[in-house]
Design goal:
The protein is α/β, with parallel strands linked by helices. Helix content is 44%, strand content 13%. The chain contains 12 helices and 12 strands. The strands form 3 sheets. It has a 6-stranded parallel β-sheet with strand order 2-1-3-4-5-11, sandwiched between helices. The N and C termini lie far apart (115 Å).
Length: 390
């Protein structure tokens, strides 16, 4: 009995020992498997998970920037918006780019939506610089900074910076071009001139006009430049909304009233390309463009593709080139400074008073392009290709 009982006990003990070893081995293997599969398990010298660096060297979500452009109907605003979005996204920002179809209410709604979605900075090319004060007040309440893009935002203290080209200089260059081509400094004349102005709700339009007239007015007063229509004051010559069709209609009226009997039209001051293309269309319909009736000198601004082609074809004489890549880069620098709590670089702190404050500004330099230099200015710089201008 004792023998049998002893063997049974040993057998039971062996079985219990085997179960215990098996259990321990299974537990160990399970633990090792879990450790091997755990993606974030702490291991000596393991690299930390990658994080997105924010501006200023901290770790955070990407900052959100709203970009509001007035319309897609003009080539230059498409280029401005595209350049701005590409540069800001290249710097790591999230960008909401919206176009307002030249409708103030649409632009206000888009800006409100950007604020609601949590943007940190608004970059605004205003349709009407005096019509968005309420939405800018809302932006300020939500600690949203505002940069006025190319068009000064009026009557609001809630504008941090303004970035544009030297708009008075734009007009000066147009006036100097006319002065040189007509030989006015050498005493040549008289020549017949008609004057066009930009949209009265765009603050830039008065700078263009005043710049050009600072050169041309002395010649008008001396009789070297004659304005047969008698229309020279800005209110009379301004074209609402920079509308090509309205410019064409006004030029039709001027031709019928003042040049229908063979009088010669020597020069048309047009502040930008959208007006110039309407003026060219009007004159073409009136029979201009022949050896006996050549186009007058016609100025412009923006170097839009149809206008550069018109220059190549001797219809438009020149256009001010404002490289939107340069302007977009400067605004991106301003955005970066604001989001890092720094001051942006400016080069004008006295000129641009919006009625509520003098807005610190950065002014880029404009140049002109014509048939003689457009390849150097526009093609060699990579702004256009040869195929773009066919």
């Amino acid at each position: 009995m004792f023998k049998k009982s002893s063997n049974t006990s040993i057998t039971r003990g062996n079985n219990m020992f085997k179960k215990l070893v098996t259990s321990l081995l299974a537990t160990s293997l399970l633990a090792l498997g879990l450790i091997g599969c755990a993606p974030n398990a702490a291991q000596p010298n393991a690299p930390a998970p990658a994080e997105t660096p924010a501006k200023g060297g901290e770790t955070a979500q990407k900052d959100f920037v709203g970009v509001s452009m007035p319309t897609q109907s003009l080539q230059r605003w498409n280029q401005d918006g595209t350049n701005m979005k590409a540069i800001l996204e290249g710097q790591g920002y999230l960008v909401d780019l919206q176009y307002a179809n030249n409708d103030v209410n649409t632009q206000v709604q888009q800006l409100e939506n950007m604020i609601t979605k949590g943007c940190k900075v608004l970059v605004i090319a205003a349709i009407d610089g005096s019509a968005i004060t309420d939405v800018l007040a809302k932006a300020a309440q939500n600690n949203v900074q505002v940069i006025a893009y190319d068009r000064l935002i009026m009557q609001s203290p809630n504008v941090s910076y303004y970035a544009t080209f030297d708009n008075f200089k734009v007009g000066v260059i147009q006036g100097q071009y006319i002065e040189e081509k007509l030989g006015l400094k050498e005493g040549k004349g008289p020549f017949n001139l008609e004057v066009f102005g930009g949209s009265p709700d765009d603050n830039n339009a008065t700078f263009f006009y005043n710049g050009a007239m600072s050169i041309l007015k002395p010649y008008i007063e001396s009789g070297k430049l004659v304005v047969p229509s008698g229309q020279t004051d800005f209110t009379t010559v301004a074209i609402q909304g920079w509308d090509s069709a309205k410019a064409q209609a006004r030029m039709d009226t001027l031709v019928t009233a003042n040049y229908a009997k063979g009088q010669k039209l020597d020069v048309v001051l047009s502040p930008n390309d959208s007006l110039a293309i309407g003026i060219v269309s009007s004159l073409k319909n009136a029979g201009y463009g022949s050896a006996d009736k050549p186009y007058p000198i016609i100025t412009g601004q923006d170097c839009d593709k149809p206008n550069v082609i018109a220059m190549i074809n001797d219809q438009q004489s020149m256009s001010i080139f404002k490289d939107t890549r340069t302007l977009a880069s400067k605004v991106a620098e301003m955005v970066d400074a604001l989001l890092q709590g720094k001051e942006a670089t400016v080069n004008d702190t006295t000129t641009y008073d919006n009625g509520a404050k003098v807005v610190p500004s950065f002014l880029c330099d404009p140049v002109y392009a014509d048939k003689n230099n457009y390849k150097e200015i526009l093609i060699d710089s990579g702004y256009y290709t040869e195929d773009d201008l066919k």
